[in-house]
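On clarity, I found the account of how folds are encoded harder to follow than it need be. Since the whole study asks how a given chain folds, the encoding of that fold should be made plain. For illustration, here is how one protein appears when written out as sequence plus structure tokens:
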Amino acid sequence: MLDRAVQLLTAFRPDGEPLTFSELVEAGGLTRTTTHRLAHDLVRLRLLRLENGRYSAGLMLFELGRLVPVSRTIRDAAVPFLQDLFEATHETVHLGLRDGFDVVYAEKIHGHGSIDLPSRVGGRLPLTCTAVGKALLAADPAAEAQALRRPLPRLTRASVTDPAALAAQLAEARQTGVTLEREEANLGVACVASAIMVDGKAQAAVSVSVPIDRYEPWRLAAAVRTTALGISRQLVSCGVTTRRSRDAPPLPGPLGQTVTGVAQAAANPARRRTSAIART
């Protein structure tokens, strides 16, 4: 019965649009009788909300989600750095955690001038179709091996479905410290991401998403990598680990700059304030 309750709770669309009972039956894939019984119980427990004949996710789900200790600790440590990254780039910023073969978005920061993406806090996408997911895979050889043995999902015509091509991308990410993605999750959107490492393990990953016509990967990569390192150090100082995490190898080419220079290059001095990235 618990499996069916979860199946019903996960039937809701990312846009949060309420569902009629018939829509809930169709989306949940359960019988009308089972759906009616479960929906009644879930409303009573405040896991679902029923208003004007339509069902939506209840606030109890939000309250329970906030109790997850790992995501809360990482998010709290990361948010100031994510805000600085947004100020430096004025593009959409994500924080993602790995859950099985998906990435779950723990935070999203965007503004009026940044690209409008369907991603949402609490939403998930396949690891292999996103830069933030690939950053997490590149840092975890066991997870990478498992992912490469599975059929690779396709979200757009640009999604990488060849295991050899994906393995090559992940190998390059281990050398540079960043992953690059062009239109693999959303057409017209490109992304740069970097893993947040503590004691050699990826705790999460941070990314910047931009319209394809504003995609300058190596300019963005420097700021993203610096942000990931700053969050890593903050997690260590918060007691996530007792050993100090090691810095990743330096980035090649134009990324061999000082941290201050990286942040200044990522920002437009005419309209953006100096970011705390420069002080990381």
About this structure: The domain at 2-64 is CATH 1.10.10.10 (Arc Repressor Mutant, subunit A). Residues 104 and 124 are 4 Å apart (CA to CA). The two ends are 49 Å apart (CA to CA). Strands lie at 19-20, 48-51, 54-57, 92-99, 102-109, 124-126, 179-182, 189-198, 201-211.
